[in-house]
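Quick question, first post here. What does this chain look like in 3D?
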Amino acid sequence: VEVNCETDFVAKDDNFNTFADAVAANALTSNAADIDALMATSSNGSTLEEARQALVAKIGENIQVRRFERTATSGILGAYLHGGKIGVLVDLEGGDADLAKDIAMHVAALNPSFVSESDVPAEFLAKEKEILLAQVENSDKPADIIEKMVSGRLRKQLAEITLLGQP
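> Answer (accepted):
Ran it through. Tokens below.
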């Protein structure tokens, strides 16, 4: 679930965290298909929407439940939360819980956009190659050297944006 507030002060408030926990619990246990249905579910004698409105009135800051997603895992689930702002879940087939958590920490730190090179869309690669070519087109180097430079830079960028390419 993603529950948003405006300040770090509220994000650390026990009332806000209790509300966020209730939202997460209802997202997990209800069959709600969207935010409106989730907010209509009950928690401690009121709907989540009523609890949200009461919390907004009490704290004096806008609070929104932005999105949620339910998924089933077939392997080992690794979770990592960094600073209360970045959260990563890893569903790992094989390995153990420590490896799953280590991978989740790695993803939080280096933020890869894709798992592997095969996941990178051809349009993305073409656009990046075009940008790299534009950067070196006035370098007075032979075309074959320019192509090698662009290929090398593209390989380096692919290593940075893919999980399997990162160290």
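The chain has three domains: 2-67, 76-110, 117-165.
The longest strand covers residues 76-82.
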